[in-house]
Amino acid sequence: MRRILQNSIALMVVIIVLFLVIPIPPFLLDILLIINISLSILILMITMTISDAQEFSIFPSLLLITTLFRLGLNVSTTRQILGEAGGNSTVIKAFGQLITQGNLVLGVIIFLIIVLVQFIVITKGAERVSEVAARFTLDAMPGKQMAIDADLSSGLINEQQAKERRAKIQKDADFYGAMDGATKIVKGDSIMGLIITAVNFIGGLIIGVTMGGMDFSVALSTYSIATIGDGLVSQLPALMISTATGMIVTRSVSDGSLNNDVITQFAAQPRAITSGGVVILLLGLIPGTPHVPLLLVGAGLSGGGWFMSRRLSRKEAEELAAAAAAQAAPEETAPPSAADYYKDINNVYTLLTVDPIEMEFGYSLIPMVDENSGGKLIGRIAIFRRQYAQDMGFVIPAIRFHDSSALGTNQYCVKIKGEEVARGEILVDYYLALEPSNPTGEIDGIETVEPAYGIPSRWILPENKEMAEIYGYTVIDPLSVMQTHLSEVVRSHAYELLGRSEVIQLVENLKRTSPEVVEEVIPNLLSYSHLERILRNLLREGVPVRDLGTILETAADALATTKDLDMVTENIRASLSRTITRRFCEHGQLRVVTLDAEVEKRVISSLSKNEQGIYLAMGPDLMQQIITQLAEFIKKFNDLSQTPIVLTSQVIRIYLSRMLSQFYPNLYVLAFNEITSDVQIQSLGNVTLPASAAARPERKAAAV
What we know:
By secondary structure, this protein is of the alpha/beta class.
């Protein structure tokens, strides 16, 4: 019994297919027709109450099943209408008589209007909406992926939440793609309904007059009523299903159910409702107009608008009173003047302090930072610091925020150890819309460039936010823009922020769980300065240092054979293969660019050694060929919204990485032994040498 229930839907589909062949008794047919109408009403109600299309993700498949069910019933009703002189279905007769009501011509006209509304207006509109929604969803995927990466890097979400949001984006793309195809089924169903109606009417007349011996007027009345009734019980469910199709593909621009959205958004416009009521009242006073209906409707709208306006006014007054009470506080004593403060020589020494990270901003941006004014930037940075510590194993130092008169009112800058490394400008009362690769429409705004990733963007007004999202733009609020930029700057300069005190603190933290490892390695085998250099090397290339115990153990083993800290770092990277794989691999797949064997040989032959160690002395021709080819491959990574990665052998990895970082700071070079065996590696390209270049000997160049 349980297995039957689990396969009930599959059995139901098989039974529906059999409707096309097996005759159905009139009583059972009536029950199935009512079930068909009830099911369409149920689907329409569900689509109007959901707030997200994914809440009803089975809709495309359900659309196919209901269409097949309706066609099966159409075949059965056609068999009864043509085979039994109009059929014995009470449902069909009742609907036919309901719409004709003794006037056959009027009934035919009304029926044709219903059919044409279903086919031309609802079905065509739903098909167009589904097609546009599918295209917009696919075009917006890269921008949404970048927005997720920005939120992840800024600490607003963790890895699990990022995976869930990426999965939702993929599901949305699959859903709207399926809906685009499913609407073609609805269109075909409408056309088939018209064909079946014509077959029932024309075939019924022919059969009734030639084979049934009916008078033409009797045959016309009998088969017209049966045809109209059959068409109505078929087209009404089809009309509701088509309406449900249009409803569900427009859920992407809604925050709640249709019922809640209509009530909330109308209630937020009492002035418009009152104005509309006044206009209707004035129309009711004009001679010759229907006074009573106009005055009743106008009075209802005016009264409802006035009531909602009073309610909104009370709510705003309560909010203002609460805000005023919260801001009311005793005045603080005035701070001493700068001249008095610096009379104390000890206070002058405070000017010599260099903050690890500081952020300066213009006057207009103060409310975004000041917590007393509702600013949320500091809270978000705290979340980012926690997320970065969990991901990379390094705690970002405190960030000093202060305003600066040297900056524009909308500008900000980020400094690392007292020197500016990044600058940006944001408009507080606008939204930043990141342009997709192929926008389906152009939105008005101020052209700019997104500061963190350099994406062409526009500052748009809040009222254009929804339209920009429909056109495929990724819309970000100003606070997130500034926070994402700050987070990316901190990530890229994290290795500079790691000092001796931070290293000692990390080691002391490790002592709590692995005191034996620390006592064995530090300072007997590895000094704090050398450990600082190793950790900086790892952070510079985006490798987490969270597993400090493994780092120390591997360093101790490597120092037994070499004193070169670069080689020690390479051994540590190999021992952190799982960490590196998790850091750069997505869904068990790693997309990379590889080097041809001949290219690797030429790079190895370019290695030289002096008193300071091994360095790469590559000729300009070889360097130019590698850099030029990588530029083309990096475009492929950008189209996929993925981090560009070069995969090579361990021998040349560190030297190649140092060379390429000068041209492509966001490119990572990994070695084969740093990737676990369970990862599927997909090559997007292979850096090769022309035949003529491969035959020429390498010319030495300056050290890289």
